[in-house]
Amino acid sequence: MAEAARGRTGLGWKIPLALVLILALLVVGGRWLHHRLTHVHVIDARIQADLIVVASRLPGWIVEMDVSEGDQVEAGQRLVAVDGTEAQLSGEVLAARERTLAAEREQLKAELTLMEARDASRLARARQRLVIAVAEHERREQDLSKAQSDYNRVRDLADDAMVSEQELDDARFRLDSARIALNRSAAERDEAELAITEAEAELLNRGVLEARLQALEARLGELQAERRRVDLDVDDRMLRSPIDGVIARTFVNPGEYVQPGQNLLMVHAPGDVWIEANVKETQLAPVQVGQHVDVRVDAFRGERFAGRVERVGTAATSEFALLPSPNPSGNFTKTTQRVPVRIALDQPDTRLRPGMMVEVSIDIRD
Q1: Of 9, 99, 132, 260, which sees the most CB atoms within 10 A?
Q2: Model pTM?
Q3: What band does 1 get if pLDDT is binned at 50, 70 and 90?
């Protein structure tokens, strides 16, 4: 009887315990099932960032390297210096030639200014002489006309013996003198016109100087463009950080010879990261932009990060593979494809580094 009582007593506390365990399993199982039905879970997501590769545009020896992996850098900060001695010397030669041409240009400008003033003065004097010559010629024409009238009158009087031969000779002399003076004034007028023609012809010499000046300006512009190219080469040998960030990786050391396009180092912004989760195509349909995402980072167990779906990929990851997988034999094995989903963090954390593994749960109820 005593053993039967003890059996019933032991069975009495085991049954409630079993019921509690079953209830707990049901609750946990229900919550797990509910989570699976309302969330898309990805365990192999990774943290991504824009990794900017800094490369050399020109060949040369690395003479200085100012940073190491993990260093914080600012935009515009010098990272690597490639030997640019030859380019600097070329720049100095071009600068000297540019100064020489600039001095020659200023000399031509001064000559052109002097010639313009001289030609303008010469042309003005020639025109003034022409005005005076024309006026003098008109006066001489009037004198000739008067002398001719006087001579005709004296001649008529001499025919009537009313004047002496001396007076007739004087009138004839005045007439001849007036003709000579008229001819001289005509010559002076023609000479003044010729002086204007010569002064205008001198203007053509100014055109020659202007053409020389234009050619010199073109040579100077070409030389300045060449010098800017050399300056660009010198500046390009001082590789600077394109962003505020951190040095993720270096590929070269001081003293190495680099080729154009060779990668020297890699930099990224530590706070500008996101998560890329490759979601199975069978789970992709309910995933929408803006849905809440719960993030767990393997490196920080126990911490949770919140995010939002920022973009859903437009092609499966297999489409970007370097080696495609054709099916020439006709044998086919269906494989579930994955589509990349980009997740933005609500509060970026500088501890998160590109490549870290994370687990994400996308709440598809939103």
Answers
A1: 132
A2: 0.59
A3: very low
